# Entry
Amino acid sequence: MDNPLLHPSRNLIRGTAFMAIVWVAATTGYMRAGWNLQDALYMVTLTVFTVGYDEVRPIDTEYLHALTMGTMAFGCTGMIFLSGALVQFMTLNPLQQLLGGRRVQSEVDKLERHIIVCGYGRIGVELAKALKDGRAPYVIVEQQDRRVAQARDAGHPCLQGDATNEATLLDAGIARARALASVLPNDAANVFITLSARSLNSKIEIIARGDAVSTERKLIHAGADKVVLPTHIGAERIAEILLFPETSRFIHESEGMRELERQLHMLGLDIEVVVAPEHGALTNLTVEQIEARTNGAFFIVQINRRDGEAITQPDKKTFIEAGDGVVVVGRGAQAINAFFAAPRTTGGSGKFR
# Structure
């Protein structure tokens, strides 16, 4: 059963609405007795707030007696309820935040080798859910009241504070944490958090979000181990769907392949479809040459030619041509894409180096 004490804002709205009805109804009642609007409002206000001044006009009819007594009964009762709701709204929310913050802090103090998630926006929500489903020890750091409440309602341990503040990171147990994910929608804040986290714990793994491509270098320089560019990843996924719809559907929409993706991810591997660019560093090389040049960073398991031909389990001597969709398995989707996207450098012989 819904407990009204848990919703002070709802009680405040109900009390305000009730008093508005009483005010309008009583004022209208006095005006029907021939009073003007100013006198009617003044009389209702005196009665509701039980001030006790003299009546502005004589209450000398049965109708006015009944109306005044009704205004007293409903108005005073409503004001008591509204006053209580206002006090509840002003005190209960801060009290809940204080008690909730202390409870979360006591839980965080017991964590070891946990993950700190900075930010509970769109990415933070999905990341927290995945960590919860995976039963990993974690804590969220969020500054906005609304998002803190949403995180705690969803069952996530959430500390309220500014993640760019080193004291907040210390409260989140960064000295004992094994990893930190900074996923705020602000590149500057993510860079600052990365710098602070690296200075507080030199061994922690830091994964940072970046919106602008130029931010990736800054985050790496600040101490991030890995950088995720959601916009870049999204664009690559859309291009994959448009260029190679059948392969994309097979890899990402098949239940069996999704399970394989999960299993590979648990091993630290990704399966991706990468488009070989016109002048890419690995374009026009054989499968054997590519795997050798990249020191086994990934393996090519399928090649989709521009004409629609799909080559599964390609021979080591098969060439990768510009425009081909290459299905690869390896460590880090971004690193795989970077290998193919890197421009080819040539010497006098024109060979890859």
